[in-house]
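Hi R.,

Here's the input for the phenylalanine complex you asked about:
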Amino acid sequence: MVQAREHWSSKMGFILAAAGSAVGLGNIWRFPYVTGENGGGAFLLIYLAIVFTIGLSLLVAELLIGRSTQRDAARAFKESAGGAWPLVGYMGILTAFLILSFYIVIAGWTVAYTVKSLTGTILASGTEEVGAVFTGFISDPIEPVIYTAIFLALTVFVVLGGVASGIERAARYLIPILFIILLVLAARSVTLDGAGEGLSFFLKPDFSKVGWDTFLAALGQAFFSLSLGMGAMITYGSYMRRDDAIVGSAASVATLDALVAVLAGFVVLPAVFAFGAEPSAGPGLTFITLPSIFAQMPFGAFFSALFFFLLAIAALTSAVALFEVVVSYFSAGDPARRKPVTLWVSLASFVLAIPTSLSMGVWSGYTIGGKPLLDALDFFTNNITMPLGGLLIAIFAGWVLRRQVVQELGASGTLVGAWQFVIRFVAPVAIAVILIAGLI
Ligand code: PHE
Ligand code: NA
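And here is the predicted structure with phenylalanine in place:
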């Protein structure tokens, strides 16, 4: 017997859950440093343009595939077209699992840094000292693994609660908290002496710095940030009711995700400039540059703890989404299987997370393609399987999906026409370009 599929409790519930999936480390840790590396304002503009064209169109496509079939990422393809298409779903499920296994490691660091902000052990003056503290922490064989386990346990707790009373409920509480913390931190940062320079870096486009690679960076960032190309939004779409509206909700999710990225820019960049640090410091901007800034601020320990707590919350609702992609597939729509499947998936991801964590320290000598395991997983998913998944999903939605399903979008003819133009031509070409450029 087929059990009734779980559903979101309301339109708002869906928007918050999907925003929880989208808003993550990608917005608060990754977006500010990628913006810093790519020259500021011009990057912001290009990023927003991509989010609301290609990004939004692909988000609509994934939700439609999920909603029309009411199935997980692999069965959704089987049900709507068959053939080799379910392979796209399997690749997505594998991608979700691989991302999960390094995402929980980095998320574990954010939990550790929340605690360590309060005990003051990470707040040294000078980026060199803070850098040494960070390297010392991530290369310890035991401590980061324990924090990964703590974060994983929180994720499992939410996923075990199910779709409406676990995932949606967590987002209902955590997303508002996240916005409040972001606003407090942004208000602190933009009122620092010397914040103006950071603000103009972020908001004044300087197109002389724009190159081919600016577009590539923006497209990759938009993809990761909106959780596209790996079936997360197909899975969340499959928990919508068949008559739930897609286009408006997708626009809300994209807007919330962009808003959090922009607010994170307001938190990080003015502070970086006010304290004379380098905006192009890369991934270390959050874990190295920021603690050295917090150390120089009044009540710095408090703001530091608040910032890393914010990151941990954002990461939690995203890790839940990655988990759900895998759990949804293996439990095959049977609610009775959610619990055992969740426990097995958590065990498996922990098993992969251990060497991933150790690859930052004692096992850094073992590399894959010249990279430690953590970077190799990041590279493989971000540069290969996610864009490839996105490309195939766009082709599927644009050229394979039956017209009758497309009509279920329920939007005006002009809107559907615009969506089809982007999903058939613009998105496949643009994604094919990043995919190839990313490999060479
Ligand atoms: N969108 C999340 C972020 O910005 C990452 C993510 C990717 C989550 C894919 C779920 C699925 O951090
Ligand atoms: Na995001």
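One thing worth noting: Strands lie at 367-368, 371-372.

Cheers,
M.
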